[in-house]
Amino acid sequence: MAEEVKTPAPPPPPEGEKKPTAEKPAAAPPVAPAKPAAAAAAKPAAPAKPAGPVPAPWTSPMVEKYKSQYGSGLDALTYLGQNYLSVDRSLIPDILRLLRDEEQFDYCVDVTAVHYPKREKPFDVVWILYSFSRNERVRVKTQIADGASIPSSVPMWATANWLEREVYDMFGIVFDGHPDLKRILLPDGWKGHPLRKDYGILQQDQEWVQINLGIESGQ
Amino acid sequence: MTVPLKTVPLDDGRSDGKNDAAIRSSNLDLETPDKPYLDSNELVINMGPQHPATHGVLRVILKLDGEKVLGTECIIGYLHRGVEKIAENRTYTMFNPYVDRMDYCAAVSNGLGYCEAVEKLLNVEAPPRAQYIRVILTELQRIASHQLWLGTHALDIGAMTPLFYTFRDREEILKIFEKYCGARLTTHAFRIGGCQYETYAGFEKDIKNFLTFFTPKIDEYETLLTGNRIWLERTKNVGVISAADAIALGVTGPVLRASGVKWDLRKAQPYENYSKFDFEIPVGTNGDTYDRYLVRVAEMRQSIRIVEQAVGGIPEGPIMGKVPKVIKPPVGEIYHSIEGPKGELGYFIVSDGSTQPYRLRVRPPSFVNLQALDLMVRGLLVADVIAVIGTIDIVLGEVDR
Description:
The structure holds two protein chains of two kinds. By secondary structure, chain A is of the alpha/beta class. Chain A has six helices and eight strands; from the N terminus they run ααβαββαββββαβα. Chain A has helices spanning 13-27, 36-41, 61-70, 92-101, 160-171, 206-213, and strands at 56-57, 74-79, 82-87, 107-115, 123-131, 136-144, 149-151, 174-176. Chain A has a six-stranded mixed sheet with strand order 1-2-3-6-5-4. In chain A, strands 7-8 form a two-stranded parallel sheet. In chain A, a hairpin with a 4-residue loop joins strand 5 (123-131) and strand 6. By secondary structure, chain B is α+β, with helices and mostly antiparallel strands. Chain B contains 16 helices and eight strands. Chain B has helices at 20-25, 83-88, 92-100, 107-122, 128-157, 161-181, 203-225, 229-235, 243-248, 254-258, 265-268, 289-312, 365-370, 373-377, 382-392, 396-400, and strands at residues 42-47, 59-65, 68-75, 190-191, 194-195, 332-340, 343-351, 357-363. Chain B has a three-stranded antiparallel sheet with strand order 1-2-3. A three-stranded antiparallel sheet of chain B has the order 6-7-8. In chain B, a hairpin with a 2-residue loop joins strand 6 (332-340) and strand 7 (343-351). Chain B is globular, with a radius of gyration of 26 Å. Classes of the chains: A alpha/beta, B alpha+beta. Chains A and B meet through helix 1, helix 2, strand 4 and helix 5 of A and helix 2, helix 3, helix 4, strand 5 and helix 9 of B.
């Protein structure tokens, strides 16, 4: 997935190189007279670990329980200290309900999606949950096909209402059972879903712009 | 039966008076009918998008029974700029200033959340000195954000003086920002890995001066409002939200705390070096507009405490961590959130190992908190809608992104 369609954006690497170099010297010249020695020494405190960490299996009593219950449909991983569950689409309603009712994940922080156009099931839908009593976060991810729908989590967390509407607006993912699934940030008649990777950054619904704004183009 | 036309416009300059006699002499039954002419009990009106009390371009469709609100619907997106799409087309460094433009009343907090999220993804940490500078500026920004909120909220309700007081004092914070990084609002104060700028000569003195200047000013705000009869009438038991409802609706920040939930990310999941400082989490009990006012005022005092402790203990050392010149986080994803002035401000970043985020999602507190408006205003009067929009403390730049 490293070479995904980045849309017609400016080629990044040269700019990416310029910016940080400009940063470094700016950090070095000491402005405050109080600490020139320290700044000149420029000994960074944080030990950087260049080798990228990989997701490790996440083990906990909760996970063990669900794994024995659901078997291969569920994968529990941890990355950079954050736990997440990769769940088969068919298990989503059950898992979410269990997490809320039995594990006290009573606060749905966010519902969002990621588009991987080259994959067979191009969309990841992600729930970020938090439990006040455990002071713990968990992410639940599932993969769905383009055009497939997913059960709405509004009956479980009222906050998912607008969050799911935004996912629908930006990705075109349909949530079954959502009380009022319509666009939220873009106008109702808009065509296209901008956060899909095949939607260019300069792309617009020209027809909508011409009809509703009375101008030739929004560019 | 036709509606009697007894009030044909006679004085609008257009009526020629020819029909007047005919109307007066008509034998229409002019008695009051049994039923109203129209079923006018329910009225749907638009508040906004151009309305001074919606704090930007928010459109609220109100369904009214007389003056009573039966339900609302928020129409948002007027300020949508596609920040998340832009992020996918910029490098990590280039995207940094964009986050300032979301919650433009708290640009420093946005920057902190973004930089920390990318640092976590890179597995680096800002050096201690940078952390102190970050905490000081972020807490000053929290005070500034609450001041702006207090001034405009009070103005919406009809108290004009607090606006002048809070803006006068907020100016001092903006001056510090300006001296530190050259900008007052969209500061771009922090960089991935630390801070770009060393503190200027007199930075600590300026901040200490500000603290001594500002501490009595909070009392001044309180003398204007806390015991004010009109303020109490307009805010007590207005826009009540229970703790359970607030959690179900994902409401965070002062709005959640005013409902009695003692939850603050600075304590629950400390980031930067907040665990080093001694401060309290103010909570309310009723979850009404008045409690939210008290919570925010108390938060300003707590922020002063944090800044006081931090400014005395800024360590020597570098201000930039060991970040590579080209920021290329390894493949993976991260969710990181901070306690912004308005609630939980989160960033969910998916990296594909390139210089640009593969996906960057902002979890905006204003957007989620605004969803609670409908519940909070049902059964209230139209004038209370203004008070409740103010008390949620939304910034439309962040709602719409």
